């Protein structure tokens, strides 16, 4: 959260410099909101490695507004500032094309030969652990020996602040007990994101994936091998999607993923049209509606 608010702070400071007017608590009205959204969408400059880009994605703008609203409402609730009407501070969002990995792809990562790059092993194992537990990086990267009991993982999630109990699949158990000796090695989110792409490429996860998103009034479409889209966030999407496809009730999956509503949960589900069709076919078969009638 500290990192998140630092990003929001830097964007507000950049907007303040752009419009040449100091931002105070009295600044936050609808005109400010419209101007900020317009600035972030079209004018805000940011750096991606060595490339300087102008304008943020729609979801990035929405995240900034969301965190700003949370901060302002907290200030009001604590009676630090007077009440502010934030009704019109709408959170922009769009459905993303974020990927998930199938169980077969996750196992391909788990079994890939890393003898030429043994230093990648801990990153691979951490990622696979995340895929088979459904935890956030901040949670599975801080697992301790006392969290593992009788083949189950007991973990208090940092973001939602509630306990989850997760059965350990054989792969997850092997990683925690045999490879990590119950102690997950320390690494950063960025470091894991960088190395897991290399492992994904080595494991042959290279199906061309097309991802689209809005940036300003443009529809951006990018096609790259699947391994280039893998991040630590792919773990939770993979867990939720694979369990959903396997028939696990959403309410049980949410007990582990920490989602508070079905609406938020279903945003995580990423299935292809073919997978959706197959799922419907299975349901119809269970209901006995796929029997072929024979005309005499």
Please, could you describe this protein's structure?
The chain is an alpha+beta fold. It folds into two domains: 2-77, no CATH class; 103-272, Orthogonal Bundle (hpI Integrase, Chain A). The chain has helices at residues 2-19, 30-43, 58-77, 103-111, 121-133, 137-140, 170-179, 189-202, 233-245, 250-257, 262-266, 273-286; strands at 45-48, 51-54, 148-149, 152-156, 163-167, 208-215, 218-225. It has a three-stranded antiparallel β-sheet, with no helix packed on it. β1 (45-48) and β2 form a beta hairpin. The mean pLDDT is 87.
Task: Set down the secondary structure blueprint.
Blueprint (H helix, E strand, L loop, with lengths): L1 H18 L10 H14 L1 E4 L2 E4 L3 H20 L25 H9 L9 H13 L3 H4 L7 E2 L2 E5 L6 E5 L2 H10 L9 H14 L5 E8 L2 E8 L7 H13 L4 H8 L4 H5 L6 H14 L10
Antiparallel strand pairs: 1-2, 3-4, 4-5, 6-7
Short description:
The protein is of the alpha+beta class and 296 residues long. Helix content is 48%, strand content 12%. α5 crosses α7 (170-179) and α5 (121-133) packs across α8 (189-202).
Poorly predicted sequence stretches spanning 5 or more consecutive residues = none
The mean pLDDT is 87
Specify the oligomeric state. Answer: single chain
What is the second-level CATH architecture of the largest domain? Orthogonal Bundle
Number of domains: 2
For this structure, what is the CATH class of the largest domain?
A: Mainly Alpha
């Amino acid at each position: 959260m500290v990192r998140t608010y630092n990003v929001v702070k830097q964007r507000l400071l950049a907007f303040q410099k752009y419009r040449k007017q100091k931002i105070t608590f009295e600044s936050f009205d609808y005109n400010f909101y419209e101007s900020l959204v317009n600035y972030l969408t079209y004018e805000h400059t940011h750096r991606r490695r060595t490339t300087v880009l102008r304008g943020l994605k729609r979801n990035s703008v929405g995240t900034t507004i969301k965190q700003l609203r949370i901060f302002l409402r907290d200030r009001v609730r604590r009676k630090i500032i007077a009440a502010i009407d934030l009704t019109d501070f709408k959170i922009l969002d769009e459905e993303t094309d974020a990927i998930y990995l199938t169980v077969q792809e996750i196992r391909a990562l788990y079994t890939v030969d890393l003898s030429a790059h043994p230093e990648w092993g801990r990153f691979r194992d951490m990622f696979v652990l995340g895929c088979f537990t459904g935890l956030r990086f901040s949670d599975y990267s801080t697992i301790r020996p006392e969290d593992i009991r009788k083949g189950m993982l007991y973990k208090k999630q940092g973001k939602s602040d509630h306990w989850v109990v997760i059965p350990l699949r054989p792969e997850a158990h092997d990683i925690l007990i045999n490879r990590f000796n119950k102690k997950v090695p320390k690494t950063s989110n960025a470091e894991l994101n960088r190395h897991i792409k290399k492992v994904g490429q080595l494991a042959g996860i290279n199906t061309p994936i097309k991802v689209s998103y809005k940036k300003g009034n443009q529809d951006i479409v990018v096609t790259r091998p699947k391994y280039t889209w893998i991040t630590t966030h792919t773990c939770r999407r993979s867990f939720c999607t694979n369990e959903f496809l396997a028939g696990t009730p959403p309410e049980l999956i949410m007990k582990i993923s920490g989602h508070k509503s079905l609406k938020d949960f279903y945003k995580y589900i990423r299935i292809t049209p073919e997978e959706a069709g197959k799922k419907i076919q299975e349901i119809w078969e269970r209901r006995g509606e796929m029997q072929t009638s024979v005309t005499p």
